[in-house]
Write a structure and sequence with these properties.
about 140 residues; alpha/beta; Glutaredoxin; five-stranded mixed β-sheet
């Protein structure tokens, strides 16, 4: 039997402090995805083509702690989560969606990617992340 890894099944955290603690303990990087899951077309494309791809999920399993920072317009979201996401958006100066920010295990910002170029494959994305990992 083959188990299908699915981002919706809980690989994605919504709490950055928890994610950072996990990343530090497991010597991984943190990848924050600032997105509008129910209205932002480039966000949906990034999720579909890269972040939910088997290759990316395989890489993430050993190298990343994933944090979903969603700013939906239609989906219900707890007020506490909305406030926490907005505070992180302000802290990291997020001005558009999607914005992906990669942090080291100790919270240092390593890379900020704003927008999504549909020509960029999961493999391209993984190559960039691998370079960041190798620098650390």
């Amino acid at each position: 039997m083959v188990w299908q890894v699915n981002a919706e099944e809980g690989n994605w955290l919504t709490n950055l402090p928890k994610a950072q603690a996990q990343a530090k303990a497991e010597k991984k990087m943190v990848l924050m995805d600032f997105n509008g899951s129910d209205w932002c077309a480039p966000c949906k494309a990034l999720r579909k083509n890269v972040l939910n791809s088997p290759a990316f999920l395989e890489f993430a399993k050993d190298n990343l702690v994933l944090v979903d920072l969603d700013f939906p317009t239609h989906k219900q979201q707890a007020e506490e989560l909305k406030k926490a996401n907005q505070a992180l958006s302000d802290k990291y100066h997020v001005e558009g969606y999607p914005t992906v920010i990669v942090l080291s295990g100790d919270g240092k910002e390593l890379k900020k990617i704003v927008g999504y170029d549909e020509g960029k494959s999961a493999k391209d994305f993984i190559t960039e992340l691998q370079k960041l990992k190798n620098q650390g």
